[in-house]
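Sample pair:
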Amino acid sequence: SISSLVRFGNPLDIHPNNADTIAGRSNKFITFVDGDGSLHRFDGVTGADGVTFWKEPPGTHLYLRSLTTDTANPRYWALTRPDRVTFSFNATGYPTFVTDRNGNTISFTLTAVAPGDDPGGPKFHVTRVTDAAGQGASPAPNRSFDITHFTKATARKPQIRGKIARITDHL
């Protein structure tokens, strides 16, 4: 599978965001839609020590946490399942890595969306997914998937822009 915990290419929805701040809302919560369409909401609870922890929804066995305060770090957010598979996201919530308990990693290459290519859509597109065999000191043949999206130059209709045009695998 070339997907992550969230639907392919979709970010976590992190609140409070700019719109919340402008409206005077300060509730802390993070939501995402998983592969089967279920919405999951983690509520931020600030402890007496000032540290926020994320309370998972009932029936969801995921541990959400922020790993750093460095917003440039590609492993800013992490969601870990009980089997110790960790899904990493950057500070804006886009998927960056999936790592299992043995250190095998799937990495997601994100590319900024050019203005006009996907109006109102995501700010980044996943343009490559590389599995653990394509990484390391002496990697096996690169096993990756290259994803091409429709742009303003390749799609006349704006509703098509940003959609996946082609997936090319390592073979």
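The longest strand covers residues 39-46.
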